[in-house]
Design a protein that fits this description.
The protein is of the alpha+beta class. Helix content is 47%, strand content 15%. The strands form three sheets. A four-stranded mixed beta sheet has the order 1-4-5-8, with helices on one face. The protein has a four-stranded antiparallel beta sheet with strand order 2-3-7-6, with no helix packed on it. Strand 9 (270-271) and strand 10 (274-275) form a beta hairpin. Helix 7 (232-266) runs antiparallel to helix 8 and helix 9 packs across helix 11.
């Protein structure tokens, strides 16, 4: 197989530590957490003590000041384990990144050390009941009142919603200005007027708390604003490529892992006097899926490399997210088929992987939105009815 060239010996040693942490601190308890719909806060503190949270946060704010690949190791090993309860990715890759990139010095000092240690858990408050991928359509409003803003509205499908201590919250400070009326705030969930809805029951990721959140005239100081007023949408757009890359990293890892599980199963499961793996259909199917997983891995690694060089753009990230999400779901579905009836039993990891997979076509921007981003870029240089169509092979403007 093509050898991955991204990681150093230091990354490999960190990966070994992360695997041991998952084996000792998560694996024995995850089934119970799935039944409870939440992981304990103590796990977050243990992960923080192990150096697994917010690896890229600078040392001056309590972090390791490590490169992005250390976060990648955590995301990959969590995906490889199949344990989806701990919402580390949202906390590290998004919330901490927003604070680190756009926060004031006071905001960084207030929240980053606690996020690194696991004392404070972060959530991203963007999605609303009537506004999913269309972030310009949010209705949660923040109205200035002297030196404060008063926030009213609601969010839904918020990962870490039951546990979160701080939320990067998207609001409208000017309902008439469209995207230019969006402003971000760092909201402390201990403030009066904040309320959590029930822990939502989901198809998959049953151990990860997901909530509807309510803001009933929550008063925050103007100093809680993240970035400048009216620039929230712009700031969110700068982080979408990173969010979608993280989704691709997870999907690439799950695709690889599920193929490995399936090869092991069919090599030992017997039917009609031989193993399922002896049948040509099984070998041909797994050969196809293995190849798709390897292609996905190489594309994802190239995107990681581009991101670290500051060259990953929105279209590349959308292609990675779209292709890996579709591949993830396809491979899990077709591998489950090779498990037969046992693949439908919750005690088998393939069943949980199947349930967990479906969200990847929605989270971080739906597949349809990714297609729109890619298609819009493909045709951006053309002007309908103009001469730009002429001379393009296979196209007749008439």
């Amino acid at each position: 197989m093509i050898k991955r060239g991204l990681f150093s010996e230091e990354h490999d040693a960190f990966r070994d530590m992360v695997r041991k942490f998952i084996e000792n601190e998560i694996a024995p308890h995850h089934a119970a957490w799935e039944g409870q719909g939440i992981v304990p806060r103590e796990l977050w503190r243990k992960a923080g003590a192990a150096g697994m949270l917010c690896c890229t946060v600078p040392e001056e704010y309590g972090g390791a000041g490590a490169d992005y690949l250390f976060d990648v190791v955590v995301f990959e090993e969590m995906a490889r384990s199949g344990y989806t309860g701990p919402g580390f990715m949202i906390h590290c890759d998004l919330v901490a990144t927003y604070v680190k990139s756009f926060g004031s010095e006071a905001q960084k000092k207030q929240w980053l050390p606690k996020m690194v240690s696991g004392e404070a858990i972060g959530s991203l408050g963007m999605t609303e009941p009537h506004a999913g991928s269309d972030l310009k359509a949010i209705r949660t409003k923040a109205v200035r009142d002297g030196d404060d803003f008063v926030i009213s509205g609601q969010k839904v499908f918020i990962s870490n919603g039951q546990l979160c201590d701080v939320i990067v919250l998207a609001t409208k400070t000017d309902s008439t200005a469209g995207a230019k009326g969006v402003t971000l705030f760092l909201v402390d969930t201990s403030l009066p007027g904040f309320r959590r809805g029930k822990n939502l029951q989901k198809l998959g990721m049953k151990g990860q708390d997901t909530s509807e959140l309510f803001f009933d005239e929550v008063r925050v100081p103007a100093s809680a604003m993240l970035g400048e007023e009216g620039r929230g949408f712009e700031l969110m757009m700068t982080k979408l490529a990173q969010e979608r890359l993280a989704q691709a990293i997870r999907s690439a890892t799950v695709a690889e892992t599920v193929v490995e599980w399936t090869v092991d199963y069919v090599a030992n499961r017997k039917a009609f006097g031989k193993t399922i793996g002896d049948f040509q259909n099984t070998q041909f199917k797994l050969a196809e899926l293995k190849t798709e997983a390897v292609v996905g891995r190489q594309f994802t690694d190239k995107c990681i490399e581009s991101f670290m060089q500051g060259e990953l753009d929105a279209v590349d990230a959308a292609m990675a997210k779209m292709w890996l999400s579709n591949t993830h779901c396809k491979i899990v579905d077709e591998c489950l088929q090779l498990f037969g009836g046992w693949g439908y039993m919750w005690e088998y990891p393939i069943a949980r992987a199947y349930a967990d997979a479906r969200i990847v076509k929605i989270a971080g921007g739906s597949i349809e939105v990714m297609k729109h981003i890619i298609g819009r870029q493909m045709f951006s240089s053309y002007q309908k009815g103009g001469d730009r169509y002429n001379g393009v092979a296979g196209i007749n403007p008439a």
